[in-house]
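Project outcomes to date are best conveyed with an example. Our students and postdoctoral researchers have been running inverse folding experiments weekly, and each run begins with a structure described purely in C-alpha cells. The record below, which covers 367 residues, was selected by the lab manager from last quarter's runs and is presented without edits.
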C-alpha cells in the first residue's frame, strides 16, 4: 500500500468491505466493490452511497467575501440566496479553467466552496492570492462528504434525518442531523439522479456511512466506487477536471458558457473569454457515439476525412444507454449533431457520430 496517499475518514470501511483501492488525485480511493456496471445500475435503479470526502472545502466570510467571489468566479454570486448552491468556474487571467466548483451561501456574508480533490492546494493558492482580503479557511481535512444518489435516495436520507428533506429543492441545502450527525444536506450530485451530498464533520463520517448502508440494505442500496461515478457522470456529459477541462480550456468551448456572466462586471479571465467569444470558437466539446464496437479513450485522436479534427477527453461503455460513448473536442466545423467522424484507436479508425447530450436523461428533483 502506498503510504504517501491520503486517506478519507472512510478508508478503513472501504478496505473492510473488500473494495478495490486505487490512487486518485493523491488519495487512496475505492474504484469498485461488486463491479462497475452493477454499481452503475444500482444507482440508476435504487440508490448508492459514494465516499467523496476527498473533495476540498473552503470557507470565506466577512464583508469582503462577496466581492472576492465575484472577482474569482465566472458566475454571478449576487444571485445566490442563503441556502442556495451555484455551479461555477475559477479561471486564470488567460481564460483557462483553474477548476470547476460549487458555491454555497451559508449566511449573508459566509460562503463555502467545494473544489476538486486533485486541485485543493492549487485552488487554495489561487483564491487566497486573488481574494486575500476576505477571511478564508481551508476546512477540507475537517470535512467528510457522502453522496447518496438514486431514485430511493430521498426516502433513505429522509428516514434518518431530523428535517423534512422533501422540502430541499435542487441546488438548495438545509442544516440538520442525519443518523444523529450534524449535516449540511445538499440536493446536488454528479450522477444525474436525484439525491444528496451530505457534509459532516470528518469524525462523524463513518457513523453516517454505516447508518445509510444499514438503513438501505433491504432496498438494495450499496456502496459505489469511483468507476461507476465516472460512467454515471459521463452519461450526463458532466465535465471531469483533468480530462474534459483544465487550465488550457476556456469555459465557452467546454459548453460552460451558461455559468459565465460578463454582465456582472470584472472577474479573472473575463477579457480573455470575451475575446474568444468575439472571434468565434475554434473547437467545441461534443458527445460522440461509437457506431463501431470500440471504446474511445482519453487522448485518442478524432479524425474527419483523414485529417485530425480533435481529441477524445472521456470515453467508456454507458451501462444505462448500452452504447459506447465519449466526449471530445472537435473543430467547430465538425461539431454539429449528426456529423460522422472517426476515432483513431491503436492505429485503426473506428466510426463515430456526434450526438446530442446528455446521453441519458437526468432524473433530478427540480424546484
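After processing, the design step wrote out the following sequence:
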Amino acid at each position: 500500500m502506498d503510504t504517501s496517499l491520503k486517506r478519507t475518514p472512510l478508508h478503513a470501511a472501504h478496505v473492510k468491505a473488500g473494495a478495490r483501492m486505487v490512487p486518485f488525485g493523491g488519495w487512496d480511493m475505492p474504484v469498485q466493490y461488486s463491479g462497475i456496471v452493477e454499481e452503475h445500475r444500482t444507482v440508476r435503479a435504487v440508490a448508492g452511497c459514494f465516499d467523496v470526502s476527498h473533495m476540498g472545502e473552503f470557507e470565506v466570510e466577512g464583508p469582503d467575501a462577496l466581492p472576492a467571489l465575484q472577482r474569482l468566479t465566472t458566475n454571478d454570486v449576487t444571485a445566490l440566496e442563503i441556502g442556495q448552491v451555484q455551479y461555477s468556474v475559477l479561471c486564470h487571467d488567460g481564460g483557462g479553467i483553474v477548476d470547476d466548483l460549487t458555491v454555497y451561501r451559508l449566511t449573508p456574508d459566509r460562503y463555502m466552496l467545494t473544489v476538486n480533490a486533485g486541485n485543493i492546494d492549487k485552488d487554495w493558492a489561487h483564491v487566497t492570492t486573488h481574494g486575500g482580503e476576505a477571511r478564508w479557511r481551508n476546512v477540507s481535512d475537517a470535512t467528510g462528504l457522502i453522496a447518496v444518489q438514486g431514485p430511493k435516495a430521498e426516502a433513505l436520507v429522509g428516514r434518518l434525518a431530523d428535517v423534512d428533506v422533501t422540502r430541499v429543492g435542487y441546488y438548495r441545502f438545509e442544516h440538520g442531523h442525519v443518523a444523529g450527525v450534524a449535516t449540511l444536506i445538499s440536493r446536488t450530485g454528479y450522477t444525474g439522479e436525484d439525491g444528496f451530498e451530505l457534509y459532516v464533520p470528518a469524525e462523524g463520517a463513518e457513523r453516517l456511512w454505516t447508518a445509510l448502508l444499514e438503513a438501505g440494505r433491504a432496498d438494495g442500496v450499496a456502496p459505489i466506487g469511483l468507476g461507476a461515478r465516472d460512467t454515471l457522470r459521463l452519461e450526463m456529459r458532466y465535465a471531469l477536471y483533468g480530462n474534459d477541462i483544465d487550465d488550457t480550456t476556456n469555459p465557452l468551448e467546454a459548453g460552460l458558457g451558461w455559468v459565465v456572466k460578463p454582465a456582472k462586471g470584472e472577474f479573472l479571465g473575463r477579457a480573455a473569454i470575451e475575446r474568444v467569444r468575439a472571434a468565434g470558437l475554434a473547437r467545441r466539446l461534443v458527445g460522440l457515439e461509437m457506431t463501431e464496437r470500440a471504446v474511445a479513450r482519453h487522448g485518442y485522436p478524432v479524425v474527419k476525412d483523414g485529417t485530425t479534427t480533435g481529441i477524445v477527453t472521456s470515453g467508456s461503455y454507458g451501462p444505462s444507454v448500452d452504447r459506447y460513448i465519449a466526449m471530445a473536442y472537435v473543430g467547430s466545423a465538425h461539431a454539429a449533431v449528426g456529423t460522422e467522424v472517426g476515432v483513431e484507436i491503436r492505429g485503426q479508425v473506428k466510426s463515430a457520430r456526434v450526438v446530442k447530450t446528455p446521453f441519458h436523461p437526468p432524473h433530478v428533483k427540480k424546484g
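The two ends are 45 Å apart (CA to CA). DSSP finds eight helices and 19 strands in the chain. The training component of this project remains on track.
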